[in-house]
Amino acid sequence: MTPRWRATQAILATPVQDEEFEMRLPEMIRDHMPVMTLAAALVLAVSMNGPAAAGDATAGKAVFNSQCAMCHTIAAGGPNLLGPNLHGIVGRTGGTTKGYNYSPAMKAAGFAWTKEKLAAYLPAPTALVPGNKMPYAGLHQPQKVDDLIAYLDAQK
Ligand code: HEC
After folding, report:
1. How far is the CA of 121 from the centre of ligand 1 (A)?
2. pTM beyond 0.90
3. CA 38 to CA 26: how far, in whole Å?
4. pLDDT tens digit string along 70-87?
5. CA geometry: angle at 142 spanning 136 and 146, to 5°?
6. Ligand 1 centroid, distance to 32 Cα (angstroms)
């Protein structure tokens, strides 16, 4: 037996550390379980709350002014800018604001802008209406989306 082989055997014959680790593993899982369960419950609570939470129209006005007003007016009879006037948009059939030159995709969409449609559109405009020409990447914070929709809903 070469010395190197003997050394290898010596290492293989000392599994003490591994055994200790294996014995501690169930303990570690048990110790961390409540934290993991709590974290999972929180994630669930947040995801359940997201789209259903009531929006705050006052907060939504600020969102509109910072995210939408450069392209949309919302007052009754307001002008079309780069995007169409959005007065009364909640409940209105898409692509029908008078005097606005919509993309063929938006004209063909043919649905009414319910709160649910807006909640799907605003975070990902091109996903809901592929080929529409609204050059907006999307509003990704669920609370801001809810607030904004509450504001839009109040403008009619
Ligand atoms: C950079 C300009 C721009 C920004 C910013 C923008 N939009 Fe638009 N929006 C457009 C354009 C252009 C269209 C027309 C799309 C088409 O015809 O394909 C449009 C269309 C829409 C429509 C469909 C209207 C209809 O009559 O069917 C809604 C709803 C809408 N935008 C809401 C919003 C909201 C809410 C925001 C803010 C989060 C926003 N947009 C931000 C340019 C913009």
Report:
1. 10
2. no
3. 19
4. 999 999 999 999 999 999
5. 90
6. 47
